[in-house]
Amino acid sequence: MGTARGAGHRRAAGYGPYLVALDIDGTLLDTGMEVPLVTARAVAAARAAGHQVVLATGRSLIGALPVAKNLGLDGGWVVVSNGAVTARLVPEAPGGYVLHEQHTFDAGPMVRLARARIPDVQIGVEVVGWGYDVTHPFDPAQINGDQRVVGRVDMLWATPVTRAILAGPDVTSLVEPLRGLGVTATPNAQNWVDVTAPGLSKATALDTIRDLLRIDPVHTLAIGDGWNDREMLTWAEHGVAMGHAPEPIKALAKRVTGTIHEHGAATVLWDLVERTTALRQATPA
User: Fold this and answer.
1) pTM of the entire structure?
2) Residue 205 CA to its chain's centroid (Å)
3) Which CATH number does 7-102+200-282 carry?
4) Domain segments of the chain as ranges
5) Less Cβ around it within 10 Å: N or C end of the chain?
6) What are the φ/ψ torsions at residue 179 (nearest 5 degrees)?
7) CB hemisphere CA count around 129 (13 angstroms)
């Protein structure tokens, strides 16, 4: 675990519950929807120890829900679409969730800018809980949910959207121009950019949840591996980067764990369980 920020926090930092924020792709699993058993058991142990486990992902809600179900996170929280959407997991609700917050933006300026600079750019806008409206179909392995090809490009901004996806060669050249429009533009690969409303990140949504759960800021742990985890790793008192993360991401974290194939997230979770359990047992009632 990382070191507490100040002397006044040193004693408090050992006690829970913690808010444990977990990225999905590259952190909990390599591909697909099913978390490896060794990692799923570590998540279950953290929850049994009283910690609040929150999935925090760039996936859409429709892509995060199967992972939450696989982990048995009924009654918990998910942060999806890089912080644009926050939902509470409620098994008896339609779809198994209740939306808590949705941050939207007008996709029109973004779409016009992107198409002016890269005419054949592939664009998708999220339809929460369903899938995407797209200019032309994406590989189903790239996005979760259904896809609907729009008849006219202006249909992409007919209503405010939570997130847009831009894909294609040289699409990362659009990042700075998009930011000039005021939106949040996050490159996730050389040919992929996510766009959300201004000022959003996984960290902004997680801090709202932390406040709702009344968890002390020093009791925050986050594990991630990608560029969209930057703010989350610096927001958490204990920010942990996966061993295969890019070097700049590792540099932001207080700790580096094993790679996805070494089940590095499970190692961190077991450390948390053992450490907090030992401290509680050593504390007089």
Assistant:
1) 0.92
2) 9
3) 3.40.50.1000
4) 7-102+200-282, 108-196
5) C
6) -60, -30
7) 11
